[in-house]
Amino acid sequence: MSRFTRPSRFWETLAVVIVKPLSTLLVKRDWRRGDRIPRTGGIIIAANHLSWTDPVLLAHFLYNNGRWPIVLAKSTLFKVPFLGHAVRSLRAIPVNRGSSEAARSLEASSERLRAGGAILFYPEGTCTRDPGLWPMVGKTGVARLALESGAKVIPVAHWGAQELLPYGEKKPRLFPRKTFRVMVGEPVDLSGYAGLPPHAQVLREATADIMAAITAQLAELRGEKAPETPYDPEGR
């Protein structure tokens, strides 16, 4: 694995020593179908977003299943003393949301995919605002990245992080100890879009397929039926 897609031994060891015990202490595990995650090659891990703790808990899951997750993080984190250096050293990619530079994060992600990296992507772009905490309508960046790179998209659903730290709260709810559940699906079939120009409609449809795959995994994980129409925060 290239150092372009994995941190130095020092930073990897430091992250593992901190994250794995912390994750184990905070939550119980119910991890399913980790065998569906390819151990080599560039892949996109497309996941739902429930809590600010998602990246840490999912990173533990992915690491235990043989992949170092390359996270897309807010660009502001890279400007915080020490934290910015640590995030950069852990191979995270800065995202300038709502700016003309946002495309740079996709370019950087594409480069990491070509080098064999595993990109952890939250297609919703933020924690879900759906009242039932189901995945929302996704943004098209994940579809564009997948169609341009040809990388497999692995849908991953998780549940329980929102009980540990609900969105918008700063104080975690440590007791009783929560369970972090994960379900991995088969790669999303995007073959129907191969060779098509990346027009807006194509990207929206491919994104909808990706979000539907994530939602299906979450429905199985929760043992509930998902809404027929995903929540659209922009009211379209």
UniProtKB/TrEMBL annotation:
Domain of life: Bacteria
SUPFAM superfamilies linked to this entry: Glycerol-3-phosphate (1)-acyltransferase
Domain Phospholipid/glycerol acyltransferase per the UniProt entry, residue ranges: 43-161
Pfam families assigned to the protein according to its UniProt record, in alphabetical order: Acyltransferase (PF01553)
GO molecular function: acyltransferase activity
Signal sequence coordinates: none
UniProt protein name: Lysophospholipid acyltransferase family protein
